[in-house]
Design a protein that fits this description.
Layout: H1 3-33, H2 37-61, H3 67-87, H4 91-118, H5 125-154, H6 156-177, H7 190-195, H8 200-221, H9 223-230, H10 238-260, H11 264-284, H12 289-304, H13 307-318, H14 323-349, H15 356-380, H16 384-395
Length: 396
């Protein structure tokens, strides 16, 4: 395994931690700033939307720049944003800090996915991307529960100071372990990167990413409330229950990457269908502690098991100019995050209870399954526009 993949995973760990740890701390944040649960949830949705902007604009702006310095610069942005969040005297400043940190997210994972795929043989690309995303899953297994515990014991600001320190460590790791990379092919212009979006399959992939991840994220955003108000767990148990979810992420990411290298579409269809079933059963049996424990693990496994395949699929159909499409797909993950968090907040605000985000997540994921089935069917009889777009991207 190329040592550079470990360095990328370190960066992914820090970024994944700042994205997900806020979920376990929403009650504390809402209480300190005197805002509602749904308003506190906008610290998640706002982050996700800023990821989309950064994924598109920063990736496009840095397409032809050396990739290692770009990754390091993005980590500097990440560190500054989290430090500002830790210092924020009010809700508005906290939101600004979250947005600054989020701007690096999409570009880091988009460019990092291309770098990871370039470090291995073509038939191992999805597996290499999965290794990089292992940092994201490790953030959920170890970082999020510890960060939630730290925030509950010493105040949520201590968590974001810790994240800033991890960002510094990630910077050092990237600087030391990622090899000096050649400049991207200067013959590939931004126009050629944009040409990849002429492929219908690229758009199918982005849509599935939004809906599949949005469904899972909608269920997960308000999970602290579900666990305490519906399942009956004490708030002190939330960090340790999140370990189960994180364990599912690790297994799903590993298994999804291996299976996607064999058959991307079939793997995605199976995992998304399983996620629909798990979410529906979770919503129905959320009052049962045992059922909740099982559902948390499976939700993480099937939900995150789609990530390597979705990222590899969009790069595959982008042809020879995958960088911007890769960044766009990271943005799509976070459009899904925002969609899920918004839908869950609407359900709670409408008085539908703390299981409503899970029911809505199941519905959104079911739509993703339908879109994925259509996309897979079209690959068997590719549209003329797809053939031209893929051929043009490869030729460029």
């Amino acid at each position: 395994m190329p040592v550079g993949l470990i360095a990328l995973a370190i960066g992914a760990f820090g970024i994944g931690l700042t994205e997900f740890v806020i979920m376990g701390l929403l009650p504390e944040v809402a209480t300190e700033y005197g805002v509602t649960e749904s308003a506190a949830g906008w610290l998640i949705s706002g982050y996700a939307l800023a990821v989309v902007v950064g994924a598109l604009l920063l990736t496009a702006a840095t397409t032809r720049l050396p990739r290692k310095p770009v990754l390091l610069g993005l980590l500097v942005l990440f560190i500054l944003g989290n430090a500002l969040t830790a210092l924020a005297p009010d809700y508005g400043t906290a939101m600004i800090g979250r947005i600054i940190a989020a701007l690096c997210h999409g570009a880091f994972f988009g460019i990092g996915s291309v770098v990871a795929a370039g470090l291995v043989a073509p038939e191992k690309k999805a597996g290499a991307i999965a290794i990089m995303f292992t940092g994201l899953t490790a953030a959920n297994v170890f970082g999020v529960p510890f960060g939630t515990f730290l925030g509950q014991e010493f105040g949520w600001r201590s968590t974001f100071w810790t994240i800033s320190a991890i960002g510094v460590l990630a910077f050092i790791g990237i600087a030391a372990l990622v090899p000096a990379l050649p400049r991207p092919d200067q013959s590939i212009s931004l126009r050629q990167e944009l040409r990849a979006f002429r492929s219908g399959q690229v758009w199918f992939s982005l849509t599935v990413t939004i809906l599949a991840f949005g469904g899972m994220f909608g269920a997960f955003t308000y999970i602290a409330y579900t666990l305490t108000e519906v399942s009956g767990f004490a708030s002190s148990a939330v960090p340790w229950l999140l370990v189960l979810f994180g364990g599912g992420l690790v297994l799903g990411n590993w298994l999804g990457g291996r299976l996607a290298d064999r058959a991307i579409d079939r793997t995605l269809i199976v995992f998304i269908a399983a996620l629909v079933v798990v979410l529906a059963l979770f919503a129905f049996f959320a009052s049962s502690g045992i059922a909740t424990i099982v559902a948390l693990f499976l939700m993480g496994g099937f939900g995150f098991g789609t990530v390597p395949g979705l990222q590899s699929r969009v790069m595959q159909y982008a042809g020879g100019a995958p960088t911007l499409a890769s960044g766009a797909n990271i943005g799509a993950f976070n459009v899904g995050n925002a969609l899920g968090a918004w839908a869950g907040g609407v359900g709670i605000s409408a008085g539908l209870g703390y299981t409503s985000p899970i029911w809505l997540g199941a519905i959104i994921t079911a739509v993703a399954l339908v879109v994925m089935l259509i996309a897979a069917a079209r690959t068997r009889v590719p549209a003329e526009s797809d053939r031209h777009a893929t051929a043009a991207a490869v030729a460029s």
